[in-house]
Write a structure and sequence with these properties.
The complex is a heterodimer of chains A (about 90) and B (about 475). By secondary structure, chain A is of the alpha+beta class. Chain A has two helices and four strands. Helices cover about 45% and strands about 15% of the residues of chain B. The chains are: A alpha+beta (about 90), B alpha/beta (about 475). Strand 2 (about 30-35) of chain A pairs antiparallel with strand 5 (about 170-175) of chain B.
Chain lengths: ~90, ~475
């Protein structure tokens, strides 16, 4: 199974003090994908990563998916082409 | 072996030495000064050899394109006789879609040559994809560590896209939350795997960017019959500017003005969990640009080969709204859909061109690929979700982390010129903080400081030190 696990690399209390206060309150967390024999969301498991490393952590997703996209149409950008092409053609701004 | 934070950090010098096969002590003159040119020439690669490595790695020979429609539009907003010709170097044509392939190609070649089984790099930007792409060509293992999400697990869309791209090239991606401890994770992985540290800041990496400057000089000569008067370079860590400027000089274009450009993100802290997703630009911004210019040796190698103040003639800022406008303009007027990094310097070039005579040439030295997560609609939709006020209006009202104001017209795009003197004084302040006992009258230190700050008259540097003392 191809899964994503999460592990706390450093607890908030173990973090370097040279960082802003808001960050200092948070655990330092890693997420990484790999192959696991068994995986149940929320349970600890060991994965083998793409370079063959063994890493243990809590399963957060099976078949982890990329969810980023192109967003919604942004009206605040739509004038750019219209206004500039008209201007280039010699029309009014 | 003790893998605690303090134990791993205390082994950093040994880990780095093994992971790079490079002993920086060879170049140290004293704890402060070092022989920069010796370090750069010790890569052992001539420009011709670098070019050969890059062409074999599907890198380089990207086209230089004239942006005639944008130039014409700029001229409509300029005084008669003004509006320099704008050209853009289409670096998106490199394998992996950005100029970063130039750096990664040399790192990969060195890693293979030295017998490493793989490469690791800590980078949330295009460089990760470039390393992954080059690793695939050399059949090397590859691990990319990225700062991806805040404490609510909300990922910056552009960085998530970089994770996807690295995976597409077969790399292992380690996604991390906000914080400088990325470096600790890198050291831990280098020690565990014995991989090569494909740092952004090695002499190999920077030498790889020199070909970009060489190509610009030669292509411009072919197309226009002269070297460009101005080259605008998106500035973050300093490698892009350093390498390009060195390449231009090596080609004889030593009168070309080197202009660094960054997106103004002042007020946002780069290591803040709260601020992390309030910015719509993940690189090419002041959060990297200013600290890396004024103290280059803050990186994952002992001596940074990217030293921008040695080459920079001007440093200008644009704001987020202006770059989004420019990205849209490039697509709508020139038929080129490209990513944010190069469009930062294009926004600056648009503003600068209108102040320059129309027979002068201004080159924007990079483009990058775009796509899901990176596109303006992706970033602006995300910004709105993060509570940022996105509106059309006067871009002077832009406030990083609070709003993004998209200009109504191209004539509103302006640069905010930064004082080079202020940057250089800030460098001196950092020298003082890091080396409080430094003897500036020592001949080695004197020469090093004059080179670092590109100042021929040492009295000026002395006055900066005196001023800082007060």
């Amino acid at each position: 199974m191809w899964v994503q696990i999460e592990k706390v690399v450093l607890k908030a209390s173990q973090r370097t003090s040279k960082i802003p206060e808001d960050t200092l309150k948070c655990d330092y967390v890693m997420r990484i994908n790999g192959y696991a024999d068994n995986a149940e969301i929320g349970k600890q498991t060991e994965i083998t990563t793409l370079t063959g490393r063994k890493v243990s952590g809590r399963v957060v997703e099976v078949n982890p998916k990329f969810r980023h996209d192109f967003g919604e149409p942004v009206e605040e950008l739509m004038h750019v082409g219209r206004v500039c092409r008209k201007e280039l053609a010699g029309g009014e701004q | 072996m003790d893998k605690s934070y303090s134990a791993v950090m205390s082994r950093r010098n040994d880990i780095m030495k093994k992971a790079m096969g490079l002993d920086y002590s060879d170049y140290e003159i004293n704890p402060f000064a070092f022989d920069y040119e010796k370090m750069m020439s010790d890569t052992g690669f001539s420009l011709e050899k670098i070019r050969e490595i890059q062409l074999a790695g599907k890198v380089g020979n990207t086209p230089l394109l004239e942006l005639k429609n944008i130039t014409n539009l700029v001229r409509k907003h300029s005084k008669k006789g003004f509006g320099a010709r704008i050209f853009i170097k289409d670096e998106a044509c490199n394998a992996s879609g950005s100029f970063k392939a130039r750096r990664a190609s040399i790192s990969a070649y060195v890693a293979k040559m030295k017998g490493y089984k793989g490469m690791a790099a800590a980078t949330s930007g295009n460089y990760g994809a470039a390393v992954a792409s080059q690793a695939s060509m050399y059949n090397l293992g590859c691990i990319i560590l990225q700062e991806v999400f805040d404490s609510k697990y909300t990922g910056q869309p552009e960085i998530i896209e970089k994770s996807r791209k690295c995976e597409a090239y077969g790399a292992e991606v380690v996604q991390l939350s906000v914080g400088p401890e990325l470096f600790y994770c890198l050291l831990d992985i280098l020690e565990e795997t014995g991989f090569f540290n494909a740092s952004l800041y090695t002499p190999f990496g920077i030498a790889g960017v020199e070909t970009l400057g060489v190509e610009i000089a030669n292509q411009c000569m072919d197309m226009v019959g002269k070297f460009p008067e101005h080259v605008v370079i998106t500035h973050a860590g300093g490698g892009n500017l350093t390498g390009t400027a060195r390449g231009l000089k090596k080609s004889g274009a030593d009168k070309t003005s080197i202009i660094g450009a960054s997106v103004d993100l002042s007020g946002l802290h780069m290591a803040s969990d709260n601020d992390f997703n309030k910015k719509s630009f993940t690189t090419g911004h002041t959060g990297f640009g200013i600290p890396f210019a004024t103290w280059p040796d803050r990186v994952d190698v002992p001596r940074n080969a990217a030293r921008p103040l040695r080459y920079m003639d001007r440093y200008v800022l644009v704001n987020q709204g202006e770059v989004f406008f420019t990205t849209e303009l490039l697509a709508q007027l020139e038929g080129l859909e490209r990513g944010p990094a190069g469009n930062t310097s294009l926004a600056a070039a648009i503003a600068l061109a209108s102040t320059l005579p129309e027979d002068e040439v201004i080159v924007v030295q990079e483009t990058e690929y775009t796509g899901a997560g990176k596109h303006p609609t992706a970033q602006l939709s995300f910004a709105k979700k993060m509570g940022i006020d996105v509106r059309v209006g006067n871009p002077e009202e832009n406030q990083p982390g609070i709003n993004i104001v998209i200009p109504e017209s191209i004539g509103q795009i302006k640069v905010n010129e930064q004082s080079m003197e202020k940057l250089k004084k800030s460098y001196i302040k950092n020298v003082r903080n890091n080396f409080p006992e430094l003897d500036i009258m020592d001949e080695n230190n004197k020469k090093f400081l004059m080179d670092e700050l590109k100042i021929k008259d040492f009295e000026i540097i002395k006055s900066y030190f005196m001023g800082d003392k007060k």
